[in-house]
Every structure is written in C-alpha cells, then in structure tokens.
Amino acid sequence: MDIKQELDLARSSVGKLEPDIRKSLQKVVDNPTEENWEDALEIIIGADRRMTLWEAVVALDPSYADMWPVETWDEKTSRTIRIRGWKKIPTRRLLTAALRYATH
After folding, report:
1. Which tens digits make up the pLDDT trace of 52-92?
2. 8: Cβ–Cβ under 8 A, 6 or more apart, which residues?
3. Domain segments of the chain: what residues?
C-alpha cells in the first residue's frame, strides 16, 4: 500500500523522518505482524511532532488502548517473560488511516 504522501508529511520530534524510520513504518503497513507493530508503534509521526503511531491508532479505534501484551518479571533469570502477546494487531487499513490522521 502506498503511504509515500503520509511519510512525506510525517514529522518526528526533530523534523522529517529518517530513511530507517520510514522503512519501519512502510514495513508495518505492508506486513502488520506483532514484531513489525512493536518496532513501529512508538515512532513519532504527527504533524504536531508529538503523536506516535500507537496514539494515532488509538484515536481512531480506542479498543487498541487495552491490547498490550502481558508480561511478568522472572526473579530467577532477571528477565521479562511474555505471558501473552498483543490481543490484536492493527490492520493495513487502520495503520494507513492512522498515518493519514496524524499527518493531515
């Protein structure tokens, strides 16, 4: 799905998006997997230079506010253990709409 216009309009906290950030956003739109979503959800994309991809998704579909994975701390290994992954991952359509929402 072509999101070039949205990527051109998106802004990080310091200005235009760097190529590697654009690539992460394109990757999650093209292939919305849990791994790609986690790589992209905290990227600042808003024209206001504050809104993240996750915030834009939640603005369009508030149910995503409660979709986070569940993790716990393992004292024996001193590591975080994931108990359950994301309840759902945003679709291409929602991700594209979120980019449009944040940048226009």
Report:
1. 999 999 999 999 988 888 888 989 899 988 788 888 999 99
2. none
3. 4-103
